[in-house]
Give the backbone structure.
Amino acid sequence: MRLLVIEGNAKQRRDADYALGYCCGSDRYQKILKSILPNAIVDVAFPADGHLDIQLSDYSGVIIGGSGLNIPGNNECPQVRHQIEFASAVFANGLPFFGSCWGLQVAAAAAGGQVGVNPKGREMGFARKISLTAAGQESPLFLGKPGPFDAPAIHVDEVTHLPSGGVVLASNSHSSVQAASIRYLNGEFWGVQYHPEFNLEHMANLTELFDQMVLNEGFYENDASLKHHVQQLKTLHKHPTRFDLAWVLGLDQDVIDDGLREREVQNWIDHQVVPSLA
Amino acid sequence: MSPRILVIDGYLKKSRDELAAGGATMAGDQYSAMIKQACPDACCDIIFPSDPGGGLPSGTALADYDGMAWTGCSLTVFEDNNEVNSQIELARAGFDAGVPGFGSCWAAQIAVVAAGGICRANPNGREMGIARKIALTPEGRGHPMYTGKASVFDAFISHVDEITHLPSGSTVLSGNAFTRVQSVSVVHSKGTFWGLQYHPEYTLKEMARLTWCRIDVLQKLGFFKDRSAGEAYVDLLETLHNDPSRTDLAWLLAIDDDITNERVRRIEVQNWVDKLVLPTMFARGRME
């Protein structure tokens, strides 16, 4: 089986990640997919660097991950336009299609929906109390997921208008579209606004990478409190049994436990990718 | 006539003194203030049934009251002793007199036991600080106590026991991953009791003082690495209490509007007054 992961960020941002010793969102997806499907070939493509010339029929599924890019106001920007065009091609091909954060927004835009800036501002760190809609409770995407759940999140844009083939699967008080399925052309996309692929270390790294931005937005009193929080997240990542840290930060197994947090990816493979191979 | 509410503070005197020494407000006073916030006309009598002679004020009967509001308590409802048994009896008498009941934590447990249900130690251990992701059941979503409340919310909490078996006539209104019964409606004999496992009466300051009083126990249970971590946490809660504009702290500690906004946190109390106490007063002919 061959799967394709789309890295939403351009080279400049990826270089910034690697320079600090961090990994990219696509690296996280590669790692997760290889642990779920040890024999699968996972390719990564970079449409933010230029137009993609990819033979989609070589693949059994496509995932679009996060990106620091923004759709609102940038529809004509080539880095954005290439990705929306690519998403349209995936829909036309009918391949199993999954996305998180930017991936959800790109798929929604490709299918005729709209993306805007969330009037509540950035949802940072962990999206709290995400609950499933009636359609979400029926969807295999959430099989094995506990009641309402928290999830890693970092976004300032959101899907404001789903296209006619879209159904909201989950929401919370910050973002009404925390998950959606979108039928368009020959395909069906499943996506989430949060990041099942981010572990605590990745969230700590992003906090450091965007330290000035999150400080300016008021998430921390000062640089010392940011560094302290980053350290807490990294410690909890290394020692998931540090109940004291998890408790103070209000982090439950839905975020800490890899299998539970990544459940949506596993479910997409089990219920979309694998059946499509038959 | 203004509603007359019996506030029942079941704590032993020793426990009340211990909490007061740690800077916490007495549970009965917290409850009276919360009831008066929801119903400024209400007249609250506080009693201490665990004290010798701590029954109803002389010259009053349960039928003189329009509501019974129970605070939390550090007793264990499935232990057989006078302090516990007398409160179970009082709750039964409340049901028989048809006086609307309401209460937090211990109160929900006592109502369930009085009506024939069972409580035991929660196998998950102590749930402390903030009960996360409490979700309304379908029955809870349609229940008058939750009109205006979100379907998923957090709430202040501190308990080790939980309701394990409901008597017939009871309905689970909410639960979370830690505790299956986070709220319950108990309809028994002539009365109705709305009980919460969590504590809408607490403020961040009261939660901080309670935590401070229990730091050593909490450290043993693994909530704090050491005493100074506990003190630092208490300090964060008090800083946020004194300066609600510190949204950075609220975000860090995952304390949302459902905790910090008092109207949202206590909507169950407002609904109890508006939708159970006042209508029952009317039905009993106690409203002029």
